[in-house]
Specification:
MetI-like fold, 6-stranded antiparallel beta sheet, 5-stranded antiparallel beta sheet, 16 helices, flat, 14% strand
């Protein structure tokens, strides 16, 4: 036999042995996992760049927009992204472009001043934006309504009289700080003190109504109610006077801004959230501004149809709903799995139940939402209102969507995951441990409670982790059982019983849907969709990491018993 033939057969045998060992499939699996990881990291990086970049103070340009056949137009704007557009497409949109050039660069610019121009954003041809400059005096004023205001600060007024003839910007900063302090005081009076009085008055009304329904309107009880109502009304009148005084003080100052077309806009400082000059800011100032905006996004309430401000109510609602869901689903899932594995007779019925549980995991989430609306809200909630809250009728208390019913609906949705995971954990506990416990005189219940359940707790936590990951991102069922675009108050406050499970709530997933698909200002909402999506991922990761840490500690605690 020749030497080349021998070498060929040796190589063929080596490849055959390598292929038969399964190593190619190991490498393919590892490559697929690595590719999936890269895709996830790339997606998160894209979301982070598109979302977090929105909070950086972009420079303002002053330019002239020269469109052929028309008068040059002054322009003050922030430049956004650009895209290549064909000449035919521009001509079909009524834009007078030359046929000599096949493609043009079209740029999205934010001109703000919605109350002046009617829209925040415009698409302009990049070549027609000429004479670009970045004056340091150009200012941005974020407002509670009508979005941002771009222009030059030309006057500060106090009760209609011009003040601050020197450095207007320093005068603005001083007076704006005073206005923001007054704004916080107004919020404290309105949402705190007056809100508590309104809540107490409503409780007195319900108490009086209950006495009327029970035919128990004693003169002494009614007199006590009237006395308390009079005291509350007196406190309310005092707070109204204080509120009126604060409103008069906050409306004292105003600013006048000259916008790009030479017009002037006068705005009360009470309506200005923040003012800054991006072209005059250094790197340190920009970084400080950036983190201030990120903190506002995380800690503040939304405004301007959810396209401005923060998402704190949505964060709070998401976390509270997931925690309530976990409290509801864990005991029911564990008890169901314990019965199926330890007590139920293993036969046809048990196999059918397991098949049904597995099939429930594949039911579309909107079906759970319809079930939650019909059973939890209308049936259970309506019955609870008739039995325990008749004084509030016809206004529903639990007979409408709320965070309690949303949590129960998601608990039902994630129940199969917890049952299957717990069953697998129970099945991995060695039978010898059960027999040893029984041999020492323990009952079956004691064995399960002190030996089996603690050792299977890591599996339970695995099921809970999967349940949290799914529940936190669900939107469809929540739209039917309690989530809203904007909740007037949080489910947790200082009024007894402090945790109000009947209230509607905001949710990060629904907030993404609402801002992305229901917003009247699409371009302003787009970066907030990315930022909120990143925040939702971070919330889910934090919740899961907490559950993973608990699972790992339980696993280390009971590992010795397994050996």
């Amino acid at each position: 036999m020749s030497e080349p033939t021998q070498i060929t057969r040796t190589r063929a045998g080596t490849f055959g042995e390598w292929y038969a060992s399964g190593a190619p499939w190991v490498w393919m699996t590892g490559g697929a996992v690595a590719l999936a990881g890269l895709l996830v990291v790339g997606l998160l990086a894209l979301i982070a760049i598109r979302g977090l970049g929105h909070f950086w103070p972009s420079p303002l340009i002053e330019a002239v927009y020269v469109e052929p056949g028309k008068e040059p137009t002054p322009l003050v704007a922030q430049l956004g992204y650009s895209e290549t557009v064909s000449t035919a497409r521009l001509q079909s949109a009524g834009i007078n472009v030359s046929d000599d050039q096949e493609f043009y660069e079209r740029r999205l610019v934010k001109v703000a001043n919605r109350d002046v121009y009617g829209a925040d954003f415009r698409y302009l041809l990049d070549d027609w934006i000429q004479q670009r400059t970045t004056p340091e005096e150009l200012s941005v004023f974020e407002r509670l309504e009508w979005g941002d205001l771009y222009g030059y600060l030309i006057q500060i007024s106090e009760q209609g009289a011009s003040v601050g003839e020197g450095d207007l910007w320093e005068e603005f900063r001083e007076r704006h700080g005073r206005a923001r302090d007054l704004h916080h005081q107004i919020e404290r009076v309105q949402e705190g003190d007056i809100g508590a009085i309104n809540y107490a008055l409503e409780q007195l009304r319900l108490r009086e109504r209950r006495m009327e329904l029970n035919d128990n309107q004693s003169e002494q009880a009614m007199a006590e109610i009237e006395r308390q109502r009079s005291e509350l009304n007196a406190e309310y009148a005092e707070l109204q006077q204080e509120l009126q005084s604060l409103n008069e003080q906050i409306q004292r100052d105003s600013i006048t801004v000259q916008v790009q077309n030479g017009r002037t806009v006068t705005v009360s400082l009470a309506e200005v959230v923040r003012g800054y000059r991006p072209n005059a800011m250094g790197l340190v100032a920009k970084i400080s501004f950036y983190f201030a905006k990120v903190w506002e996004f995380v800690s503040d309430e939304p405004r301007e149809a959810n396209t401005e401000g923060g998402v704190f109510p949505a964060i709070f609602g998401t976390v509270l709903m997931v925690m309530l869901m976990s409290v509801f689903v864990t005991p029911f899932g564990v008890v169901a799995a314990l019965y199926l594995r330890e007590y139920a007779k293993q036969g046809v019925v048990t196999r059918i139940i397991r098949i049904a549980v597995n099939n429930l995991a594949g039911v579309p989430s909107i079906v759970y939402g319809v079930f939650g609306l019909g059973f939890f809200v209308y049936a259970l909630g309506g019955s609870i209102d008739e039995l325990f809250f008749p004084a509030a009728l016809p206004s529903p208390t639990f007979g409408t969507g709320g965070i309690f019913w949303a949590s129960l609906t998601l608990a039902l949705l994630t129940l199969p995951v917890v049952i299957v995971s717990t069953e697998e954990g129970l099945a991995r506990i060695p039978r010898s441990l059960r027999e040893a416990s029984l041999a020492l005189g323990a009952t079956k219940a004691e064995t399960l409670w002190k030996i089996v359940l603690p050792m299977s707790s890591p599996a339970m936590m695995t099921g809970l982790i999967l349940a949290i990951a799914r529940a936190a991102g669900e939107v469809a069922p929540l739209m039917l059982v309690g989530v809203v675009k904007l909740a007037p108050s949080l489910p947790l406050d200082g009024n007894f019983p402090y945790l109000h499970l009947d209230r509607k709530f905001m949710h990060l997933g629904f907030h993404i849907y609402d801002v992305g698909f229901q917003s009247p200002n699409v371009e302003a909402a787009r970066p907030l969709v990315y930022a909120t999506a990143l925040l939702l991922v971070l919330v889910i990761v934090i919740l899961n990491l907490a559950a993973v840490r608990i699972r790992n500690r339980l696993r280390e605690r009971y590992r010795a018993l397994e050996h």
